[in-house]
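Annex B. Sample input.
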Amino acid sequence: MLGYVLDEIFTHHRAPSGHPERPARVEAVRDALLAAHVAQRGTQVAIRTATDEELARVHSGAYLTELERLVPGKSGWLDPDTYYSPETWNAARAAAGSACELATRVLSGQLAQGIAVVRPPGHHATRDTAMGFCLLNNVAAAAAAARAAGAARVAIVDWDVHHGNGTQDIFWNDPNVLYISVHQFPYYPGTGAASEIGGPAALGATMNVGLPAGSRDSDYCAVFDHVFVPKLEAWKPDLILISAGFDAYEHDPLAGMRVTHAGFAQLAARLRSVAERVCAGRLVAVLEGGYDLDGLGGGMTATLNTLVAPSLPVIVPVAIPPEPSLARAAIEGTLAAHRGLT
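Annex B, continued. Sample output.
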């Protein structure tokens, strides 16, 4: 059974006028999932607040103390992109806690898979810095919660159009959490080069493929077929988490990729397939970015449909793009950077 998180609390993080990270984002996903009959296809999981212990696993005490001092009940800015409103702290702690809840329930077998429709997003939040619309790193907290609950290894697959520098930072030197990202490169936040492969104790546990603007479904599928799926099969995680941003969508206003709803379905199918082979299908998608409402609603619905389909959707393998191709160069660069690493 799929578990899902949908709650009005995530609309209470109120955006300043004109800000792209706005309550309508989760409303669009909620409406799309309800139209896709998510209530008949899964079970709703009640939100919960992240505990201090869960947050302390991935954020420094000084950073959490500063957020507690600045954010609750107030409005302001943590950096030029990242705002907070009077209910932001409640929403942020609920987003992190609910991601942890889904991850641990899926790990234990209470649920087969999970979808967390939460905001504010999280993958840019480092151990001690808010940035890129993110305050708390939801998927990192979920990965750490799964490890604390007994998972020997956890993998995070980040398909948001922006590199998840925060998640990479948190697990940079952790050999038990695999972080792999496909993203537009070069682009905000400027990290995510193929040469970023992990710290001294975790070489090979960070993997980045930076694709050029204009990359399409076939380019993303080639990354998964030739880089990510083999890595996941070798890694054999107990749980796979998806940083599920939908800003690689072809009409997203903040990026330059050309992924379609069908493309997101194909990415989800590849992850479902490898999850069924290596970790009993345990897979949780946590919402990150995405600023076109149709892209958000359609992308998450495509993910839902793929996860709960009675049988695995057909996967057509995609060849590495031919020369000359910047996408081919990106794939080959990542493979070269990881050659000889476990």
